[in-house]
Amino acid sequence: MRSSVSAAAIAAVLSLAAIVPAGAASKAQVKRGEYLVNGPVACGNCHTPRGADMAPIKDKAFAGGFPFNDPGFMTYSANITPDKETGIGSWTDAEIIHAIREGADKDGRIIFPPMPVPTYNNMSDEDVKAIVAYLRTLKPVHNVVPDPKYAIPQQTMPPATVKKSPPQSDKVAYGGYIVNALAHCFECHTSPGANGVPDFKNGLGAGGFLIALGPGMSVATPNITSDPDTGLGKWSDTDIKKALTEGISPTGGHLSPPMPYSNFKNMTDSDVEAVIAYLRTVPPIKNKVERTDFQKKAFP
Ligand code: HEC
Ligand code: HEC
């Protein structure tokens, strides 16, 4: 029977509509947002400032101010708590969604790099809405963040078009979604081209990108392609899982920030397995990356 929607089901939907006001987030949405933000998406990896020891400052969670000192720009992560004056408490949902997926603030100013907006451009409507629902529940923290300076030209992003994420039952597709729409692995792990920015065409996942945590504190990202000699080709699933969730690698010892393992450790086993299944499909590129002296010394 096709027209099998029962009167009872319709009544149930109507009564739900009556108790959940339009625009209000459901509990399930907030829970999904909490999982994404503190797990695979790791917004706090940039938006929570760190002390001199690089540990996140707990009572300033998501309050911004972490500096990104790059030859091309000097920016500070924004305060994304609901504080009305210094955070995003007065922004509408649509304005926050636009900032995350299309990279412009409510006045139209472009806010990236380094925020991985090209990755978030692939984020689904349901996931970005869940993230906003969770951000609304954070403790407001009053924290003024300095203005950014960009020396490089900034690109604009096309409108985001992904409505639904792929089904979690399709491990490789869902793992690809986590990597390319949420966890921005490649924005850190891709080799730089001649202009110093990640070369997604020729160096996808091949590492060697230098990230400065501070003066004299540069870290080089490893090769995470499936190349057997210089990438992850010979690593077992357990080896990769340990690196992602515990920050321990069979070749590199303790992994340094900004590898977001303290967020990735909150990922479900099934999401970690999906990421690994997808990584196995990333074409091998031979590129041997040496850890910097700082990496070896500070995170042996
Ligand atoms: C790699 C670092 C990085 C990551 C990861 C990141 N951001 Fe950002 N974000 C920034 C920086 C830096 C700025 C400030 C840029 C500027 O002012 O030009 C910013 C700005 C913003 C803004 C604009 C706020 C304002 O007041 O202008 C919002 C909203 C935002 N981020 C939300 C998020 C959310 C939500 C996530 C996770 C889904 C996230 N960001 C992940 C670095 C990051
Ligand atoms: C913000 C940048 C950043 C992001 C995002 C990131 N990584 Fe990393 N990752 C690093 C850095 C830096 C290291 C090296 C740390 C060290 O050696 O001390 C690293 C190390 C690793 C290692 C260990 C490799 C080795 O040879 O020791 C693996 C595996 C890895 N990352 C996979 C991933 C995957 C998969 C994702 C996405 C789910 C990801 N990373 C996201 C920066 C990042």
TrEMBL record:
InterPro entries: Cyt_c-like_dom, Cyt_c-like_dom_sf, Cytochrome_c-type_DH
Key words of the record: Heme, Iron, Metal-binding, Signal
GO molecular function (one): electron transfer activity
Pfam families with a match to the protein in the record: Cytochrom_C
Family annotation (SUPFAM superfamilies): Cytochrome c
Signal peptide per UniProt: 1-24
Residue ranges occupied by any Cytochrome c domain in the UniProt entry: 28-139, 170-283
Keyword Lipid biosynthesis listed: no
Name of this protein: Mono/diheme cytochrome c family protein
